[in-house]
Inverse folding.
């Protein structure tokens, strides 16, 4: 008796048509996985590699139902989708991974923090506040410096502020719009001398799990902005294992198949805390396309198709850096010095097919592979010094 | 001053829409390379990943002209195309890589052998024959055993026979159709105790060149059919270097940019001979998708776009095996035991999207990666024992 499986048996429905969708579809191409996706614009990154698009907003339950009629299993490549519509698909017996119950917790940073606390997952101290009691809660907060997060609607650093009490009072006096959040706030303790890492966790439909090696976020010491992501991390083996264990514990608490990126703070003193979780492929897993036996995208395809998980071992050390629109360029653009970059061994360019740039817009990323972490850093600096977005 | 290049500046026109086209387009997807291809059926493998198809025969000069109007630079993924139509594109100033002059030599195995002889490229002794003088030439041939090849129209082993003089006379008496070739024959010396390897050679538009590590063809000792392809080869470093040098010499003689697969015989006694050259991506380079810094497909894209060549270094030892339709299955099919195969680290399945199988039809291939050649062989045997094409 053979166990018989077709490679192309199920159609995957995806909410969102951004670059994560594009890379998911690219990972399925060698085995001809079929996809249909929902996105409101028809020149989105995913449309470059998939012609089966439902045109509509990720909030529109009617269009989500149209998507539902065209596929067998569902996922989302962005958190900002209509979670009630997903829950109603589940009630109709459709499979959505991660489950809508996961997304409704993760969409609200307040619920997310409470979820970790309830499940004994180490996370930094916090308190929740509404617009009405925010000032009172800040005054009562134990430390002078703290992080203020909007519970909902933040994205890519928006809705997250590092403040001290004096700065906060200035913002209150100025009626700053960063203090306008209808869903309320999380006031959170600041991590001390922390390294930030991310652990991608995969949970298959049969409940089996695996974790990727921790990927470290390296910050520019001058600008304090995230500079690049590198794996393996600079942490000890013990601490890496601790990160994987806590990430796995946090994801298991959600009790759902799916691919999850767990962002962690690792304090110099030894504490490891879950910051937040993205229930989808993540920037910190882009490097896995070239550096791991199984990329995060291939892994998510396997999860959705009910296949076994693949090896997450790192074949080579790797780093990833975003290609971001510079402050002074708007509109159509070109990649300067590309030819020189292409002569460097182990450099992989990914462009998201966005036809115009604007300040800070994510236009693509590149990954570098090398034999050692030191060589990776050297090459990363070299490519960063060369590659440039310029007006066309 | 910056050197400015767009990633997406040129459209590549491809004659042929088979699996090689599909994999070429997959390699261009991360940087959004644009393609248009010509193929007579619209359910061909390339159509799964590229919607810009010109529907027509590869012999039809009108349709080749339609293709020409839609792209900037041209290549072919199969040798059986209208070479005169390509030459006329070149006369109109279009770039075709490899040049049509290369293809007109390679399409005719007689011209190809004469070309190597003329250019002092080591190749096995041969003589040319027509249908009229074939019997006379065979009688006069020095060895009892020899290889008989049709000068034109052979493909995937068709049109190539290993014969001895007695067997030949039997075929003559039976008026065997293997002896009907309007373009004539090559009678060729048999390689002695030879290992067969393939070296992929890349030539950029600026004339720079690079070679991939030799890939060895391993034959099944019982059936004498090609079993799998493995890199690195089992040859000594010296012999590998000799293979790369001869492959490069042969390709340089053609004086054209392009990607070339050079098949070589390496005799136990030390002789290295060029067998034949394919002016396109090749089976023996499939493994480069996962095993080399730059795949053969990415390399061809770079050549066509006028970019610098990428590193051909092997990141991990690898082997590739075709997934071929079994003798007893026709029609729609499934891949049996896929799930078990997917649990093995470093196994990559590529299916060509062919909806039905027939005996010996190439439906896909798989590549295995491992840390050593021995481990690669072990895994290869394991996967071969599991993966099976069965009727749906």
């Amino acid at each position: 008796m053979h166990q018989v499986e077709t490679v192309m048996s199920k159609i995957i429905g995806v909410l969102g048509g951004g670059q994560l969708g594009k890379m998911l579809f690219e990972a399925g191409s060698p085995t001809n996985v079929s996809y249909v996706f929902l996105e409101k614009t028809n020149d989105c990154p995913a449309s470059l590699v998939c012609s089966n698009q439902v045109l509509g907003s990720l909030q529109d339950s009617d269009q989500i139902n149209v998507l539902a009629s065209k596929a067998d299993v569902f996922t989302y490549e962005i958190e900002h989708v209509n979670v009630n519509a997903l829950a109603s698909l589940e009630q109709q017996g459709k499979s959505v991974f991660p489950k809508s119950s996961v997304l409704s917790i993760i969409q609200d940073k307040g619920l997310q923090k409470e979820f970790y606390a309830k499940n004994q997952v180490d996370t930094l101290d916090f308190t929740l506040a509404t617009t009405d009691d925010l000032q009172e809660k800040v005054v009562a907060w134990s430390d002078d410096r703290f992080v203020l997060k909007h519970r909902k609607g933040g994205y890519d650093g928006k809705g997250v502020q590092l403040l001290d009490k004096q700065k906060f009072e200035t913002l209150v006096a100025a009626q700053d719009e960063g203090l306008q959040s209808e869903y309320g706030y999380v006031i959170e303790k600041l991590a001390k001398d922390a390294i930030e890492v991310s652990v991608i966790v995969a949970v298959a439909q049969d409940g089996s799990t695996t974790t990727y090696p921790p990927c470290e976020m390296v910050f520019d010491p001058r600008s304090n902005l995230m500079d690049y992501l590198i794996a393996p991390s600079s942490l000890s083996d013990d601490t890496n294992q601790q990160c994987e264990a806590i990430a796995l514990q946090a994801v298991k608490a959600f009790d759902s198949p799916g691919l999850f990126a767990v962002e962690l703070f690792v304090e110099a003193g030894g504490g490891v805390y879950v910051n937040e979780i993205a229930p989808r492929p993540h920037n910190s897993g882009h490097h896995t396309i070239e550096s791991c036996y199984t990329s995060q995208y291939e892994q998510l395809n396997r999860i959705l198709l009910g296949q076994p998980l693949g090896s997450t071992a790192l074949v080579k050390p790797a780093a990833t850096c975003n290609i971001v629109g510079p402050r002074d360029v708007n509109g159509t653009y070109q990649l300067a010095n590309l030819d020189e970059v292409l002569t460097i061994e182990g450099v992989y360019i990914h462009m998201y097919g966005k036809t115009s740039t604007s300040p800070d817009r994510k236009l693509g990323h590149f990954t570098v592979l090398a034999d050692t972490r030191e060589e990776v850093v050297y090459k990363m600096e070299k490519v960063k010094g060369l590659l440039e977005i310029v007006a066309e």
Notes: Chain A has three domains: 11-96, 125-188, 194-391. Chain A touches chain B through 44 residues (CB under 8 Å).
